[in-house]
Amino acid sequence: MGKKTPEEIKFLRQDGITKGFKVIITGKGGAGKTTLTALLAWAFVNRGYKVLAVDEDPQMNLPFALGYPTERSKELVPLSQNLDYIEEKTGARPGTGWGAFLRLNPPVEDVVDRFGIKLNEALSFLVMGTVIQPATGCLCPENALLDAVIKHISLRQDELVLLDTQAGVEHFGRALAKGFSHCLVVTDASFNAMAVATHSIKLAKEIGIKRIYLVVNRLDGGPLIQRAKDLIQRFDIDKRVDSIFSLPQENGLFELEPAVIDLYKKDPNSALVQAVKDICEQLIPKS
């Protein structure tokens, strides 16, 4: 996004509120979680927050959505594939078989300093990756490390954390969302996406996330809006969430892809940018 002047980015809020909070973004694959996470990250930076964006999706698209150069993609090694770090922290190396001593609560206080990548003074990202195994709760070194990392970042102070999750709801089964105060469930106006959203909302409540919101993406006209309303009513979603947000279709994102965050430079007054800013303001804890 380019270097900002102190006047453009105020790293300490004028009202004195500097303590961060934690937001998990989930929903069906392809619903727009990564795009929303990237746009929200910059909205919060402009609002005066220091932001850590965490990519738990195995596709690892968030760094590029935030503006990280695609030609440097080979430099990005997710924590789930960083075998040396996993062995250092858990005492067991992935793929070496069973029987090794496994530290279930590895110390990972250094993870952001060692592997977080700064895009500017206020915005950083961390690529976690995920463990692609059918057994949830697997007692393997990768899962032990990722669980510890999530617990660590949920306790970090004076920093806003945005966690972009993998598709579906498997991460809830591993209790990776504990410690997060807000959950944005992203959907579109399709039956399948709304069904996944309903399940995500249920699980988010069960693990104790206090503020849960539905975000309906890519609404580009009256018929689609009505379809979304009908599905929300069919699944009783309006009774299960704190609020429902809608995001308009933004055709200009395609030419910016993957660096969707550049929309703030190209068209800062677009309807999508304004809608994301509204979500940002609604999420900020009221003192």
Q: What is the strand and helix layout of this fold?
A:
Elements (H helix, E strand, L loop, with lengths): L21 E6 L5 H14 L4 E5 L6 H4 L17 H8 L20 H5 L1 E2 L4 E5 L13 H13 L6 E5 L5 H4 L8 E6 L3 H16 L4 E9 L2 H13 L8 E6 L4 H4 L6 H4 L4 H13 L4
Parallel strand pairs: 1-5, 1-6, 2-4, 2-5, 6-7, 7-8
Antiparallel strand pairs: 3-4
Helix pairs in contact: 1-11, 3-5
CATH superfamily: P-loop containing nucleotide triphosphate hydrolases
Number of helices: 11
What is the helix content? 25-40%
Question: CATH architecture, please?
Answer: 3-Layer(aba) Sandwich
Strand order of the largest sheet: 3-4-2-5-1-6-7-8
- Number of separate structural domains: 1
Strand content: 15-25%
- Number-wise, the strands total 8
How far apart the termini lie comes to 31 Å
